[in-house]
Request: fold
Amino acid sequence: MGIVLASVALGLFLGDIIILVLQDSYFYRIDEKLDSIWILLSDIYSHSDANTSGAIMSANFQALSENWAVWREGQESIRKQNGIISTIGGIGFMAGSLMIIAGKYVEAKRN
Reply:
């Protein structure tokens, strides 16, 4: 019974935490990309004739371009960790369930 409980707890707590970390990394990367787009649009607008405020914005396009392509960095290890924890939890759940079923079967044969 303890193995089943431990595997369920592993899946519920650690598995969910790893999924949340993965989602947070996605959201962070999306925020970075939106910020980059905003910076570039501000730069374009500030140098256009439509800008009547006189404010000028300058963007470092090379730095923004270098940061743009690495959006999956570090996420593969998080996926592997999630897969390992899910596998361990599944094996533990199955082993614990089989132990419970075997125990009930042996107990029924004794009676």
